[in-house]
Amino acid sequence: MTVFEEIALRQSIMFGGLSFGFLAAIIFAFFFCYRGPSTLKTFIKVLTPLAFAVAGYVNFAAPLVVLGLLVSAIGDAFLSRDGKKSFLTGLIAFAAAHVFYIAHFLPMASLADLTWLPAVLLVVLAVSTERWLIPYTDDMAWPVRIYVLLITVMGCAALGLSGREIAVLGAFAFILSDLILAINLFRLPPDSRLRIPSEIALWIFYVLGQAGILIGAGFAQPLFSI
Fold it and tell me: Where are the domains of the chain?
């Protein structure tokens, strides 16, 4: 195999992996995200972050981004199950993903490039969770607090990236999915008419978030620019 053939193969696997990940995400959104736990639901759910991880790995994406996607798949698996232990394990996995993303963003970020207004608004949102979220989390208060801190740092780090707008949008789509998840878990009544549309919206923003981070910041140069 020549160098050019290897490059073509790797790019084919990358775009194939991205396409497969989006296809799995569409199937999950239409048929599984609003249903109760099942082995099939868990299997379909983890396909998207795993496919994105493979797409990145075969084209030499940043190891921290690939690791973030892999531990996100673990988080997805546990969050697709019922029970406090599964939720806590999933929360820890996604916290680890955010740590990996923070570690990847910070060396590329600059205070000179930081967009301050969104950063301030993000911090205000994080602080506001002490009033509208934390009082409803019972004994999960401190794990949730730590997670809120991590996603806030991740979002602020993304805002310092220059020329990687897709990654910034991806980071904030991820944050929005976490915001919807928090409302669904701790504030939304189980029989609310918003339950199904919110679950679908959560999943859409999550997938777009992961894809945006990979496409916009996972490689030496963004795959696409806006």
Answer: 3-217
